[in-house]
Structure formats: C-alpha cells, structure tokens
C-alpha cells in the first residue's frame, strides 16, 4: 500500500525546517534543514500539483518562524440581502472581495481597501463574522496554512458602479441561493451562505474553528 503524507504533515515538516534554518548556528545542521526544506517542497509539489521549481522558490523565500498566513474577506450585502462578489482575473471565478493581510493594516482597513480596489465601492467594516482555519474546510490543496477572517461591511456609497477595475474582471451582487461558480481556493459556497446567515443575525455570534 502506497502512503502519501497529508498536507498537515508536510506543513509540520516545513515548519521544522524553517525554524531550524532560523535558529541554528551550526553550518552542518543548516545544510540538513535546507535539504529537509527541499524534500518538503518536492512532496508539496506532488501533493498540490504545482510546479516544483516555483514551490521550492516560494518556500526558500520564507524567513523566520513559520506561522499561518491571514486571508481577509469582506461580506457586503445590499438592501435586498444579496452578497457582493468579484470575478477573479486569475481563474475567471467568483469570490468575496479580499486577499492576504498586509503588515501595517488592521483587518478592518484591509477589508475596506480590498472592496475599494476590487469593486470600486466604498464600505465601512462593521464586525467580525468568522475566523476559519482553511485546513478544516474542503478547499483545494494549498501550500500554506491559512486563517480566513470574514468581516461584515456596509455600503457607504452607491450600490451599482460602472467604473473599470484593474484588480478583477467584474463585480456584482448575487442571491445566496443562486451563487455563480466560485473560486474554491478563496471561498466555498457553504462559507458564503454561512457568512450571509451570520451577517443577517448578529445573535449567532462569531464562528471560530
């Protein structure tokens, strides 16, 4: 029987290798940890179907103690209760506006900026809806451990915008019961539906994995 390591196991190997490269002072151990990182890259490339050279370069670029990356998503509803989605240039599929957290910006600031950059709409961030561990949900395989933050945002400007946008192909409001094909690496249909439910009913509190 052939055994394939899980993504969780590979991320643990990556974490061990990266921590070793960060803290070791022994040149021989540094070589061993560097080799462990390269072996992890080979296994990750095979597991995720990504290019080995690209995976190796990406892992080698990481420095310091390995921690989960943070993905911030904005949940914007109109008066009809429809949810705002953007169509990504990368895969032509739809997602909640958002992206990686940048140093120097709070989650609220990131959510507002991402909505502006991806949809040309102005919003204000109201409250946190959920903090999800991507590994606990059936997303496609990913190189990174990711925490996903979902923030409810309210429109402060027009609902309909016709200006061109260089970040995404288009944006529009959709009924939660009639979602377009989603970019599953970014968000799942069950997640979008749940965020709408949490947005409509504050008494449900915050979902946390």
Keywords:
alpha/beta, Nucleoside Triphosphate Pyrophosphohydrolase, five-stranded mixed β-sheet, three-stranded antiparallel β-sheet
Task: Chart the SSEs and their pairings.
Elements: H1 7-23, H2 27-48, H3 52-61, E1 69-76, E2 83-88, E3 94-95, E4 98-100, H4 107-119, E5 123-133, E6 146-155, E7 168-174, H5 189-200, E8 207-208
Parallel strand pairs: 1-6, 5-8
Antiparallel strand pairs: 1-4, 2-3, 2-7, 5-6
Helix pairs in contact: 1-2, 2-3
Notes on the protein architecture:
The chain is 35% helix and 23% strand. The protein has two domains: 7-61, no CATH class; 69-208, Nucleoside Triphosphate Pyrophosphohydrolase. The strands form two sheets. The protein has a five-stranded mixed β-sheet. A three-stranded antiparallel β-sheet has the order 3-2-7, with no helix packed on it. The chain is of the alpha/beta class and 209 residues long. The chain has helices at 7-23, 27-48, 52-61, 107-119, 189-200; strands at residues 69-76, 83-88, 94-95, 98-100, 123-133, 146-155, 168-174, 207-208. The chain is elongated, with a radius of gyration of 19 Å. Strand 2 and strand 3 form a beta hairpin. The two termini are 33 Å apart.
